[in-house]
Amino acid sequence: MEGGRNMVSLALVHWIYVVMVVVILVVMVLRRDTLIPCILGIFLMGMAAQKGVAGATGAIFDSFVVAGVELLGIIFVISVIVSMSRLLEDLGANQLMVKPFTKLIKTPDQAFWFIGIVMFVVSWFFWPSPATALVGAVLLPVALKVGLPAIGAAMAINLFGHGLALSSDFVIQGAPTLAANAARVEVTELIVKGIPLFGVMGFVTIVTAYILLKRDMKRGIITAEKIVTGEVIKEKEVTKNTKIAAVLVPLAFTLDIIAMFVLNLRGGDATALIGGTAVLILAILCLLEFRNKMLEEFTKYIKSGFVFGMEIFGPIIPIAAFFYMGDMGTFVEVMGSEALPLNSQGILADLGGALASIAPMNKPTAAAMQMTIGSLTGLDGSGFSGVPLVGALARLFGTAVNGSIARLAALGQIGAIWVGGGTIVPWGLIPAAAICKVLPMDLARRNFIPVITGLIVTTIVAMFLI
């Protein structure tokens, strides 16, 4: 890199940012919460910016506000979708929507792939947590009946849902929004450029898992006969409103997908369409089901969804607030420009220029570091808490090697979500293990080799693409 960017000398705020990133990584590896280190980092940067104790303290809150505004849209859309899905569950419409497909499952192989594909599609629109309960409750008894071991069903639910669907997240765009905001690239650019990486990771991991499962079933290491099927979930009464909901929801979201292509809706516009559709469906179904109690019931479901949304993203906002400080616009908005050297392009851009001038950085090294750090951040079992970090590092590494920042962000996102979102960290995959009545450690062991294989192959592919 040439010109003024290489000439920018690093100031105290740059070094505080670097040191706190290292501290946050260490805390993540130790599987401890990172909010306090992130808040401390913001405060110390405020002091370095000569804002004084009062100003640095106020900068903490200001940074939360800036990060909250950035994330508000995705928090809202996830909240309203959860609100809608909970009403669908109460109506029994979720089971009715999936039940017709159970007639297509005749063999263990069909059960594995069918459960996985259904889980993948449902997770894209409703997120993996509610999708796990839906798919597990309806399809697990069918899978067990045709001879698929419960651990195989758990793997399909887990790898397709908390792995492939959550890491790509093309519809709700939670993970891509976090990564893109921190990397300061468009969400659409990250998704489009990340498609080859998402595809390679999903294909390699799931096919490897399937081959190993089939091998162990053939050897008798895993047998369906030894699996206790447990209780069959009692189906809810099918009413007229249940049938209406079961038709209305897939129809409405199918029309949304068509509208996205026809109207060329991307990023925030596409998210808004999905969120608005969920709200309208919730209102219509509340009217049909509760009639004169519709106003109160609608409020109850909306409240429930937003409680879930804040529970998920409440801890993410302080983390995002710190890593967003690496961007010039956010830093200036919170701290002012006085603490940065003349000609600074922002903390991350400056660090990238410095790294390129003093270290033998290249694209393979950048890809390997991005995947390694992304995977390490996932060890806390969240996945999402590390996404702002890998987004910020994508900008740093991409600047240093003159590579694709968006593709590096997607790579780090894959590492963080596949590891921490709930595929190989035992404390992160409890929902799938619980619904299939298998031990979380057993599921983690079955997933370990496939996921690690996928991460390695995806990193190698990324070395040639960034």
UniProtKB/TrEMBL annotation:
<feature type="transmembrane region" description="Helical">
    <location>
        <begin position="244"/>
        <end position="264"/>
    </location>
</feature>
<feature type="transmembrane region" description="Helical">
    <location>
        <begin position="448"/>
        <end position="465"/>
    </location>
</feature>
<keyword id="KW-0812">Transmembrane</keyword>
<keyword id="KW-1133">Transmembrane helix</keyword>
<feature type="transmembrane region" description="Helical">
    <location>
        <begin position="195"/>
        <end position="213"/>
    </location>
</feature>
<feature type="transmembrane region" description="Helical">
    <location>
        <begin position="110"/>
        <end position="127"/>
    </location>
</feature>
<protein>
    <recommendedName>
        <fullName>Transporter</fullName>
    </recommendedName>
</protein>
<feature type="transmembrane region" description="Helical">
    <location>
        <begin position="302"/>
        <end position="325"/>
    </location>
</feature>
<keyword id="KW-0472">Membrane</keyword>
<feature type="transmembrane region" description="Helical">
    <location>
        <begin position="270"/>
        <end position="290"/>
    </location>
</feature>
<feature type="transmembrane region" description="Helical">
    <location>
        <begin position="12"/>
        <end position="30"/>
    </location>
</feature>
<feature type="transmembrane region" description="Helical">
    <location>
        <begin position="133"/>
        <end position="157"/>
    </location>
</feature>
<feature type="transmembrane region" description="Helical">
    <location>
        <begin position="67"/>
        <end position="89"/>
    </location>
</feature>
<feature type="transmembrane region" description="Helical">
    <location>
        <begin position="416"/>
        <end position="436"/>
    </location>
</feature>
<feature type="transmembrane region" description="Helical">
    <location>
        <begin position="42"/>
        <end position="61"/>
    </location>
</feature>
